[in-house]
Amino acid sequence: MKRTFGAALLATTTLLMTPATAAGPLLVNGDFTSPPVSAGQYQRLTTDSDLPGWTVASGDVDLYSADLARLDGAQSLNLTGSHNGAISQSLSLLAGRSYELTWHDAPDTWPGSPQDPGASDPEKESCLTKPNDDQAYNVAVPGRRPVTFTPAGSGGQSPDWQPKSLRFTAGEDDSVIRFVSQAATQSLSHCGPQITRVNVRPAPGPTA
To answer: What pLDDT sits at residue 172?
Structure first.
């Protein structure tokens, strides 16, 4: 009887010490595979749209199909739709613990639309000629000021995905992460940074 009681107490203690998310991923829909987008297409999402796990906090964003993203079945999210957009996700984490946010980014791959020789229509401009500095974005994590990133990949019709990471310490309340486009929108091409493969995991050691 004592042995049974001891085992039950140990199990209860373990449950109390383990975050609710321990059995599954800490972040939901990091590959942006939901909702699925038909091959060769994109879906524009606004603050009223359903993006499982995420909230479109402002502006609008474009969800690219897996064949356009070209990263092992993942879909990708362009943080600039017709306007600069922002997405966020609230996580349940252990207060005081260090975590690492990882993701991949790439410059916009919009090739533009055919136009007459000599025409100058900004709606048809290609994003492939835009400098990466025009496609910056901020990442906000608990306990740190927003950090600005610029897609480091080379331009091209196939995304040049590059890994990025950011470490942080969870606070007492729900931890929220945000990706916010800072892309230059002086033309109507609305070129913006793409992200995918977003993940959060415990990180041993001090926060960088």
So the answer is: 81
- What whole-number distance in Å separates Cα of residue 114 and Cα of residue 34? 31
Q: What average pLDDT does this structure show over 135-144?
A: 95
pTM: 0.81
Interatomic CA distance for residues 74 and 149, integer angstroms: 21
Confidence of residue 130 (pLDDT cuts 50, 70, 90): confident
Q: Helix H segments across 39-184?
A: 66-69
Written in H, E and C, the secondary structure of 54-79 is EEEEECCEEEECHHHHCECCECEEEC
Q: Which two tokens stand for residue 28?
A: 């939901």
User: Cβ(61)–Cβ(77) under 8 Å?
Assistant: yes
List domains and CATH numbers for the chain.
Answer: 27-202 (2.60.120.260)
Rounded to 5 degrees, φ, ψ at 132 are -60, -30
Q: How many beta carbons lie within 10 A of that of residue 130, not counting itself?
A: 20
Highest mean pLDDT among 85-99, 125-139, 164-178, 179-193: 85-99
| Closest to 155 measured CA to CA, from 135, 134, 127 | 127
